[in-house]
Specification:
Elements: H1 8-22, E1 24-27, E2 43-50, E3 54-57, E4 61-62, E5 65-71, E6 78-82, E7 87-91, E8 97-99, E9 106-108, E10 112-122, E11 125-136
Parallel strand pairs: 1-6, 3-11
Antiparallel strand pairs: 2-5, 4-9, 5-6, 7-10, 8-9, 10-11
């Protein structure tokens, strides 16, 4: 299994396409939104993860990129940015895959499926997202 960095250009393209479809702009700077003027009057409306489902081999590690989607006064226009702080990750079945609770690094333990729950808090608002994870056997040619 390749490192997520291998897929970074694809992930960025997917994020831009998703942003265009939903009418949001992407802010790639991962700083805390409270220090960014364009987010000062916006509210966290949802979170997204890339990839939105994951396959990982046994004993291999991969990760997620989490985006916060922010809107202003309930409008459908908004902005999306990579979030790196105030995140937590939990695996529903640690016998299948474990996850670093603050970094989101997912490691396959045994063949099967599980769900990683991602939580992001911005101010007093917390949003959660379920990411399905499938752990597959190590490929042996």
């Amino acid at each position: 299994m390749k490192n997520i960095g291998t897929y970074a250009p694809i992930i960025v393209i997917v994020a831009l396409v998703v942003a265009a479809v939903f009418g949001v702009r992407v802010i790639s700077h991962p700083a805390d939104s409270s220090s960014e003027p364009q987010f000062a009057s916006m509210n966290l409306s949802s979170i997204m993860a890339s990839p939105n489902k994951l396959s990982v081999e046994v004993n291999q590690t991969s990760g997620l990129i989490v985006y916060g989607v922010f809107t202003q006064n309930g409008s459908s226009n908004g902005a999306m940015k990579v979030v790196t702080n105030n995140l937590s990750f939990v695996s529903s079945n640690v016998q299948v895959a474990t996850v670093n609770s603050s970094l989101g690094r997912i490691t396959g333990v045994s063949v099967g499926t599980t769900t990683i729950t991602v939580s992001y808090t911005e101010g007093s608002v917390t949003k959660k997202l379920a990411v399905p994870v499938t752990v597959i056997p190590v490929y042996q040619p």
